[in-house]
Amino acid sequence: MKIIILIILNILVISSCKENHVTIQNMDKAYIFDIVYVYDEDLNTFPANTFLYLFQYKIPYLTKEITGYNVGFNISLGISEKDFYNSAKLILKTNETRLKNSHLNIFNIKNSEINYLIKTILSKEEPDRLYYLFNSTNTIEIVNKISKRNLNNIKSILNMKLPNREQLFQKKYPFINREFYWRMVCANYRSADIIIVNMPIVSFNKMMNVKGIADYGFIDRIIASNDKRDLNVATVISTYPLLSNDSLFNSIRTKIDIDKQTDIFSYYMVQTLAMMLAGYDIVESEPNSIMNEIKGFNYNDWYSNIKNANKLRQPYKTLKRFPHSY
Predict the structure, then answer these.
(1) Where is pLDDT greater, at 139 or 92?
(2) Which whole-number Å values give the CA distances from 48 to 11, 55, 114, 273, in the listed order?
(3) Which of 164, 145, 167 is nearest to 155 (CA)?
(4) Residues near 163 by beta carbon (within 8 Å), at least 6 away in sequence
(5) 176/14: higher pLDDT
(6) Taking phi first (over 0 means left), then psi (-120 to 50 degrees means alpha), and beta for anything else, what does residue 232 get?
(7) Which of 46, 144, 289, 309 could pair covalently with 313 via S-S, beta carbons 3.0-4.6 A apart?
(8) 112 found inside a domain
(9) Cα→Cα distances 270→152, 232, 277, Å
(10) How confident is the model at residue 107 (pLDDT cuts 50, 70, 90)?
(11) How many domains does the chain have?
């Protein structure tokens, strides 16, 4: 079903940026984003009418109020994971070697191998960043604490029995839950600026990022340069950590009622658009900023701090390059 939402009538040609450097877009223009929603019918999702309301009214309003930008959205709803996987086969084929080189077999890997890999990745991070994410700068201590935990978390989600199938993981779409696959899609997909999925995305590969390691082995957003889109940037957002009712995520971030879920998602979209349009970076330990980082999928505290702020602090820190995932 193709639903076109034209909130702002003056559609324009948006200036491009070179390579993966960030270009701050002009606030005097209106920006129309193409959105594709990819769903797994056995997992929780926002109803179609909720999506329409959020992207037709709430998100444009909040984006204007908080960032000063006028935005509108063209939305393609209801693309199954099967149809999307097939439509993106060229991306998969083109990047097959890179994908396989980065791939780790979650169900058949030695503890020593994953421990060494995570230790190597952590050793490249700044001590302040490690302490912020893990409350420690001792890489061996961190690895001992989180390596086995993350692997068990990922296995528990991918092996989870669903009402209409034996497990969440599907062998016919082996990469659909993998960060590196969506990173490739984000950088090469021609038909959308924003891809929203309701499947979990696991951060478990040879190039996994530290944020994914800290966040129990999962990520909820990827943002990357994409020279096939007008803004030269695209994003993939997973709603699974926010909407799921499985025991793992309920214990991580506590259960969130549906009204609060839509509010949190709306503000999270504003944060994402602020990165895409103005190049604003994520900040640490600034609870009254829309750009404040969400640690460990603690959406409740992040949202409460924003809603209870007398005045949101204006974003100020800008990116030089778009990261692989954030």
Answers:
(1) 139
(2) 24, 11, 40, 21
(3) 167
(4) 42
(5) 176
(6) left
(7) 289
(8) no
(9) 33, 18, 10
(10) confident
(11) 1
Instruction: Report whether pLDDT(325) > 80.
Output: no
For residue 159, being part of any structural domain is answered with no
Flag whether 216 is in a domain: yes
- Domain assignment present for 165: no
For 189, the 3-state DSSP assignment is coil
Amino acid (one-letter) located at 167: Q
Stretch 298-311: mean pLDDT: 91
User: In sequence order, which residues have a C-beta less than 8 Å from that of residue 103 and are 6 or more positions away?
Assistant: 178, 180, 205, 206
Residues in the chain: 326
Q: Is 87 exposed, middle or buried (0-12, 13-18, 19+ CB in 10 A)?
A: middle
157 contacts 200 by C-beta, under 8 angstroms: yes
What is the bridge-based pairing of β-strands 218-219 and 201-202? antiparallel
| The pLDDT of residue 3 is above 70 | no
The mean pLDDT of the chain is 88
Tokens of 132: 């912020």
Domain that holds residue 232: 2-104+178-307
- What's the pTM? 0.90
Residue at 151: amino acid letter: L
The one-letter amino acid code at 131 reads Y
Beta bridge partners of 205: 103
pLDDT at 93: 85
Which token pair is 75? 């939305």
Residue that wins the pLDDT comparison between 52 and 207? 52
